[in-house]
Amino acid sequence: MNLARALRLVSTGPERQALKAGEVDAVIDSASGNVFLLSQAKRALSSAGGEAANGLLAALPRQTYLRLLTEMELVPLTRGQVLYQPGERIQHVYFPNDAVVSLLAVLELKALEVCLVGREGMVGIPLVLGAERASARAMVQGTGTALRMKAASFRDELERCVPLQRELQRYAHVKLLQARQAAGCSRFHRVEERLAYWLLMAHDRTTASGLQLTHELLADMLGVRRVGVTNAAGELQRRGLIEYHRGDIRVRDRKGLEAAACSCYRTVKTLTG
Amino acid sequence: MGARQSMRLRLYVADGAPNSVLAVANLAAICKAHLRYLFKLEIIDVLKFPLRALADGVLVTPHLAKLSPAPAAKIVGNLNDTASVLHALGIKP
Fold first, then answer.
1. Omega within 30 of 0 (cis) for the link into A76
2. If you average pLDDT over every residue of chain A, what do you get?
3. Interval B10-54: pLDDT, tens
4. Smallest Cα distance from A86 to chain B, Å
5. Is residue A221 predicted with pLDDT exceeding 80?
6. What is the complex's ipTM, to 2 decimals?
7. A42: which of A37, A62, A252, B39 fits an S-S bond (Cβ 3.0–4.6 Å)?
8. Which residues, in sequence order, are bridge partners of residue B10?
9. pTM for this entry
10. Which residue of B has its CA nearest to A33?
């Protein structure tokens, strides 16, 4: 249901105010008793089936999830926002709902992307492994929301909550595998294959089909020059796999893109099962 | 000072939707900080129990109802504004 229709059902009072402020998820028709979800809430739920939108949280027992929720706050993350710099003490961990965060290894003035974190993961893994400081730059790549928890509360929960420990150790292991794969990938695979791989990883982590990415950003992500990205993106577009317009990339042919990506995509998928 | 009466609250949500998630988290934080254990909270998912919402005259979610002690109050929205929630519930910060 769109906002205009919802506003027709709710004509006065604090309900209308909240609706206009974007603070409402559902509207109940007082004549029929039907519940209408607003479009935005529907999108969030369709990926979550009414459970936690974040995969790690959704895998926890319901009671554990609900308890953790009391320690968390939902925060908007906007593209370009930096959550941590390397060496900084970690203040919060983030469980993205629909936001996408990239972790970058910073070497002198250059930054190279190590991995992407979306609704399948968590930002703040050093805390799981007993470290207190960030080892990479965490920068928001796709605007959206995340559930955020204070580092101190997170450490307390991790100590007493076995399901959370188990889930996060498994996730940390997956991240290590991915980093190892990425090291080989950047050395041995062609830019076009790596771009396809990166786009698939990004596509897996967002609910929307469009991604806002500039050539500069992609060049930084892949550690290549801009012209390399232009050529690779042009080639993928020519083959009808993606559509690229002013920094807005849409995946047109997902299967085709998988075939065009380097073997890393399949390897990581298989390893992480 | 006499024993404080426990506050009865009912929160209507669309379970899993962003504003509802936010409302649950915000309310939990407010209860923890300001009410300690002196509250009873019932959370109703209108997606599962739409008739409860209809019977109680709830038009949108999230919707927080303070049932007792009097005066009754309702607050609509994601409860982000702690000061106005406290004010509506009659709690001195």
1. no
2. 84
3. 999 998 788 888 888 888 888 888 887 688 899 999 988 888 888
4. 30
5. no
6. 0.87
7. A37
8. B42, B65
9. 0.60
10. B54
